[in-house]
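S.,

Sequence below, as promised.
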Amino acid sequence: MADYEIPQELRYSIEDEWVRHDEDRFVIGVTDFAQQQLGDIVFVELPKLGARLVRGDPFGVIESVKAVSDLFAPVSGTVVELNEQLEDAPEMVNADCFGEGWILALEAADDSGFEELLDANAYQAHVQEREE
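The prediction came back faster than expected:
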């Protein structure tokens, strides 16, 4: 298995998004596994500020030199912040997917969707199954 960073403090979707719970909001990005699989990111389509995302529904697109992939909302909520730096520097996703390469922040009505996401160990097992 390739070497992927999977921080213990985050939660993960089976579609390869990560979620960090920061007080009253959820910060979302794509995992190290996803960005490595995609290769060099050249474009990230973001939703509008204030958009209402529903868990499991697509909310944008990430494009690399190899593929175009939908981004799926790992939790439901209202978009309260966008990483607008990705418009001019989408490669930040490759350089620092868990830091400067975050995608958006949501304000959620409750934490229920977050608790249902995979923890780091379950996500690691999910990645290993797909690589075999």
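The first helix runs from residue 32 to 38.

Coffee later?
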